[in-house]
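Record 1 of the preview.
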Amino acid sequence: MVKQRDRGFPTTDAIVAFIRAHPGKVGTREIAREFGLKNADRAELKRILRELADEGTIKKRGKEISEPDILPATVLADITSRDSDGEMIAIPAEWDEVEGGEPPKIRIHNLRRPQPGTAAGIGDRALLRVEKLEEHDREGTVYRGRVIKIIDHAKTRVLGIFRSLPGGGGRLVPVDKKQAGRELNIAKADAGGAEDGDLVSVDLVRSRGFGLASGKVKERLGSLASEKAISLIAIHAHELPQVFSPAALREAEEARPASRKGREDWRDVPLVTIDPPDAKDHDDAVHAEPDRDPNNKGGYIVNVAIADVAFYVRPGSSLDRDALERGNSVYFPDRVVPMLPERISNDLCSLVPGEARGALAVRLVIGKDGRKRSHSFHRILMRSAAKLHYAQAQAAIEGQPDDITGPLLATVVKPLYDAYAVVKRARDERDPLDLDIPERKILLKADGTVDRVIVPERLDAHKLIEEFMILANVAAAEMLERKTLPLIYRVHDEPSLEKVHALQEFLKTLDLPFAKSGVLRPSLFNRVLAQVKEHDAESLVNEVVLRSQAQAEYSAENYGHFGLNLRRYAHFTSPIRRYADLVVHRALIRGLGLGEGALPDSETVDHLGEVAAQISLTERRAMKAERETADRLIAHFLADRIGATFQGRISGVTRAGLFVKLEDTGADGLIPIRTLGSEYFNYDETRHALVGSRSGAMHRLGDIVDVRLVEAAPVAGALRFELLSEGNLPQRGRKPHLSRASGKADQRGGLRRTDRKKGKPKSGKSKKGKSWKR
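->
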């Protein structure tokens, strides 16, 4: 057991008793408040809780601390059976991966009139609201649950592309990467009028141990005659809502532009939007000027204005219901599946130049040290002075203004960059997680096929907008906490003890110290990343550090944002495309008495917890759909290059083989372990490597390798490679280190510089990309 460390601290028995008395509702903040602990005591309390979790006395899951067998209030579960009374029984979906042992049973509480989308069946995966029973019943059920939303229905239906055969009938080519190569036979009578190239939904008819399984076309979903429609696969595979209800469309069409009534007039403030060049909507605008207050010399006033979506999308309306179902917009290379109809997102709430638009703005007072001194929120009527894109703003500040930026350079553009230079001081002092993971972007031709894949330059213009948005998000969270109003936080938990330990063991293989003591902070990871900067292991270490991190999510309870190193953080800046931001806008309107569209007084933390869990899932659904579409587009792009050789980097190591990401396109493909050579390869989890049993040859995460493309399944987005490079052979007493230039091992025992050009990038330019979601 953990021993009591300080006379001022409660005993561990008292802490555990408090946790047991408040199941599902206890975090570090609540424990500190209960026992009167001060901020200076938080580090010691967290250390005690970590040790209690490590020994199994308590369990820490994100924001919640509980007994080991306590489930969170909202849980993703699989409905597996019915009990003797016919009621459905579910178990936690991720229990086998995380907890071990027998998962607790959850009895589904049946409502007489279930809400749409909550009628569950055996084999379904659902989001449940659960509560622990006082005693186990005769079936051994521990919890009672209520279905919030069906996430996935039982797999009795397959999605795929219909390929016709002479004489009628055809084959179904599945779109699921896991089913690549497992075609279904479709009889002529079961084709349902499907034509070659149609995306269809097929019911399984029968499956046998030999020959092809059979299916019957249930629904024709659209034609995939060209790659231009390839995003349709992801839309239907993930059941992304793409058609708005007639009532929502009617509400959108009946909406009228915001007027001056109930708003401050900011139309003379030269706010500008800065977005990607292909942006369809513009929901945030910025402005900065030196603070004229003599008590804040060297400081700045930064204004961030965000489209007033809450004015048009009222709680409980049809627009609101459709937006919550979507949770967020989904972005594909060829289209957008928006959270709101275009009448709202691309018209009334798009801050286009010269047009009066309603907005919710925050006025940020920044000291010369870059720290925020104060903030205030305002409901305004504004008029954008210009629509700029990132490279355009950057070119202007670097001495190449154009017809639009020239007149604005001295009065608008330069003050923005000057204010950013001040804000950056505080950002650097805060030292958020600084991963270097490039992001690729697929550019399409007019016919929808892939033109090329690029890594967009990371400019100071990007960082400027990012930092101003972070400041606005923090201000929103602080204001709502001050008003003691419920809100949805954007949270990012610190890495788990298991992941930190695994990272430590991995870094030992590179002779890199990772001395964790006291409170875990991003700076600890940044020190490791700094040590490998411009060395052979840089990409490898960045990738492994990224994998050690938790996933950001939404929550009605706050447990901070580890990656940004912020104690409180909420999403406020994109209500056009994120439902969480819309909730925050409504809460601000309510708390500050800003008029119509406020969060209802009846809104509770419990309900917002359900909303947060739901939109966290829709966010992950969107990310998966976007990633799979990119994989399919690239697989189409490479399908006619079978036999070609490429250079890539090992991006994943599993017992099944090696995953390789190609350098030029970012395409991922598998090298099955059985094809690596004549010897048996063992999976070394600590080293993230496959190691030959006889030779000791090592294929390791981050190695640069040459591969040959041997198979492409465009519909599934799957690629298979053959490895052409030899494995690294470590010498006795030496530890191998990767070389970016050759991919071979450096046996000199130390990190080696890469042979890329040294020197700092040009002002305002770097190749960094976002590595985890803010």
